[in-house]
Design a protein that fits this description.
The structure is a single chain. By secondary structure, the chain is α/β, with parallel strands linked by helices. It has 2 domains: 2-104, Phosphopentomutase (Alpha-Beta Plaits); 112-262, Alkaline Phosphatase, subunit A (3-Layer(aba) Sandwich), CATH 3.40.720. 36% of the residues lie in helices and 20% in strands. The strands form 3 sheets. Strands 1, 2, 3, 4, 5 and 6 form a 6-stranded mixed sheet that branches. Strands 8-7-9 form a 3-stranded parallel sheet. Strands 10-11 form a two-stranded antiparallel ribbon.
């Protein structure tokens, strides 16, 4: 596969093993600068990540490499995402830039996002949502490379929109604090999100639904840097919620959003509405 990637991209690679995204820069950053070989690594997720210092490869050039790699990593060698990881700095002070970009496989089947679109509901993606779904089912992409940007975009949409679905990913909670075992940073990020949610609650109308959840665990105190396996939180505010508990699959969120915004179910898709 590395040979195929080198032919497709015209670049050479180093590393080619599972690695923490920050530790891999300490291990291969200087070699990368000296040799020009791009840093190729993976994790427990179905991903292929390519890191490049901006002095070796500009961000647009790295995106071109990842676009070519996405075409290679298909069929029997398909991975969920090819991820561009630009960085700068120097030894002992490497810095991952905000120009991360995810190149995802198209969803393997129809999703609730497409069902919402078919029902006439505008779909807004904040942060990397559009990238994760390869653009399928998302009408408008809003920037959110940091939690601050994502929160600001979400707040603006709540003020401006009369209708629609706003799908938000606050990426730093996972990427910057969880994976890097930054417990104080993780706690501070949660406090910032909590204050934002307080503002959002004041902007919601009676016919609005707010759901806060996660797509996986990321315990910042664990002894490894991959995702962890605890239950993900589910907090929802809607008229008639009754303060009750719901346990179920992540797909239940999609089913609930579908029922709330359209009044109907999609039997061929997974999930049971909690509404």
């Amino acid at each position: 596969m590395v040979s195929a990637l080198e032919r497709a991209t015209g670049r050479r690679f180093c590393c080619n093993r599972p690695f923490s995204g920050t530790a891999v820069l300490d291990a291969f950053g200087e070699h990368h600068l000296a040799s020009g070989e791009l840093i190729l690594y993976t994790s427990a997720d179905s991903v292929l990540q390519i890191a490049a210092h901006v002095d070796v490869l500009s961000e647009p050039e790295l995106y071109e490499v990842c676009t070519a790699a996405r075409e290679v990593m298909d069929g029997e060698h398909a991975v969920g995402r090819v991820i561009a990881r630009p960085f700068d700095g120097s030894a002992s002070a490497w810095h991952r830039r905000e120009g991360r970009r995810d190149y995802a496989l198209p969803p393997p089947s129809r999703s609730y996002l497409e069902e919402l679109q078919a029902a006439g509901v505008p779909v807004h993606g904040v942060g990397k949502i559009r990238d994760l779904f390869a653009g399928v089912g998302v009408d408008v992409k809003h920037a959110g490379a940091t939690n601050v940007e994502g929160i600001a975009a979400t707040t603006a949409l709540l003020r401006e929109l009369d209708e629609g679905f706003v799908f938000v990913n606050l990426v730093e909670t996972d990427q910057v604090y969880g994976h890097r075992h930054d417990v104080p940073g993780f706690a501070a990020a949660l406090r910032v999100i909590d204050r934002a949610v307080g503002e959002w609650l004041g902007l919601l109308r009676e016919d609005d639904l707010l759901v806060l959840t996660a797509d996986h665990g990321v315990d910042p105190t664990t002894n490894h840097t991959d995702h962890t396996r605890e239950y993900a939180p589910l907090l929802a505010r809607f008229d008639g919620d009754g303060g009750r508990r719901h346990d179920g699959a992540l797909a239940d969120v999609g089913a609930s959003v579908m029922r709330w915004l359209t009044g109907r179910e999609v039997p061929e898709l997974p999930g049971v509405s909690f509404i």
